[in-house]
Amino acid sequence: MRNTTLVFIAMTVWASGCGGDPAPEMGKSDPSTVRRDDSSPHALPTGRVNLPTRYAERCDVRTPLGGGRHERTIVVRPGGRLSVERRYDVYIPRWLPRGESVPLVFYLHPLLTDRLYLQRVGVQALADREGFIAVFPQGLGKSWNGGACCGPANGVGSDAPAVDDVGFIRAVLADVQAVACVDRRRVYATGFSNGGFLAHRLGCEASDLFAAIAPVAAVNGMPPERCNPRHPVAVLAINGTADQLAPFDGGFSFEGITRGAFISAERSTQMWAKLDGCRSATSSASDNSGLSCTIYDQCAGGVQVTLCAIRGAGHCWYGEPSCVFGPNSRIVDATEETWAFLKQYRRR
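The structure corresponding to this sequence follows.
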């Protein structure tokens, strides 16, 4: 266990947010553009197949939401307990053709932050350009129950029972589908840190909804016996080798908010490769950039499992001007690359 000074500093920085531009006002588009570091804009070698973003599938939503950002509240009853109000934001590009189903991506915030965090990394501009719906849920206690990570949502360090965040995400998706045209076969999840742990858990427990996941600076926090997806799930994991909060080699945990030690990024990816029945693995590296990717393919359902490691990088949403904790890296734009991977896949 590392000293409590590291824990305090990490949590303080985590809670401070990205430090970027504020989220757009309700009902207004984000005027910013998606940022990429032009000095080293590496695309991940994930073997893209360039599927079109939109399909001609139709839906019949009687009172669809207009374009822009909307704050919504739903009531959930976890495990038959008392009703709980939960919130999320949804961003819908203004130009989407009426009645045409489009992909949807969940963006899951890190620990001790809120749903605005990943609204400051260029997602809305990307959604406008690519034509997908972006959803930003809010974790209870500013945390998510991603299994090993993190409290209070996972029940560690709290007298309250663990939160059913998978059930919450299911309820959010159902609520969005009632007011927007969602391509049900192209629903995805990405998340940063604690949000990335929940993205892994959604792959384990909600493969009937999610075609692909793309966790950043996180590992699978579910024990193998509790990760049993019914359908193949495509996975892109992006991790820094110098990450001290979700260590690349595993083993470290925060006393009081985590359940046991974290597994390594490589073991996490190998777990997914086994679950998806992948039969081969290849490795590639970008010239002197510090980026290396291991790709597992020939998997069931035509999916792919990829781990991209950034040498010397810390606990970051990579590509942003600043890092939550540790050395920054902008050789990969996480906002761009998670979407570029996710959009390839459709649930069969």
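The helical segments are 4-16, 123-130, 165-177, 194-205, 265-275, 334-342.
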